[in-house]
Each structure stands twice: as C-alpha cells, then as structure tokens.
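To the wet lab folks,

You asked to see what we're planning to order before we commit. Fair enough. Below is the target structure as tokens, and below that is the sequence we designed to fit it. If anything looks off to you, flag it before the synthesis order goes out.
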C-alpha cells in the first residue's frame, strides 16, 4: 500500500471536522510551512500510534 493509499484510508474513517483539520495541515505543508499546527498534534499522534501498532503486529505475525 502506498503512502497516498494509507493516508486516504485513514482520512476516510475520520469525522468531517477532523478531515477539515487534516486538509488545513496539508495545505500548510504545501505552502511551505514546516510547523505543525497545535490542533493537529493529537490527531498526528493518534495516526502515528496506530501505524506503529500495525507495524508491530505485522512483525510479530499477528493479523
């Protein structure tokens, strides 16, 4: 699965308000800002945590 596919998969499961936050963040990245908006930090932490859990499960052989 590509990065784009992973991001879309997660994005589609988020409620509309969280999707708007993701859009604002991506727009800020595109505009050249490398600072993560404070409102995005909890969401990014959640995404990173889930990704780490999936990676760990794959490495240990769990489905």
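Sequence we intend to order:
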């Amino acid at each position: 699965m590509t990065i784009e596919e992973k991001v879309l998969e997660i994005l589609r499961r988020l409620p509309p308000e969280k999707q708007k936050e993701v859009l604002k963040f991506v727009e800020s990245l595109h505009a050249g800002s490398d600072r993560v908006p404070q409102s995005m930090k909890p969401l990014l932490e959640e995404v990173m945590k889930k990704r780490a859990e999936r990676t760990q499960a794959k490495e240990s052989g769990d489905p």
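Structural context that might help your review: The radius of gyration is 13 Å. The first helix runs from residue 3 to 13.

Thanks,
Computational group
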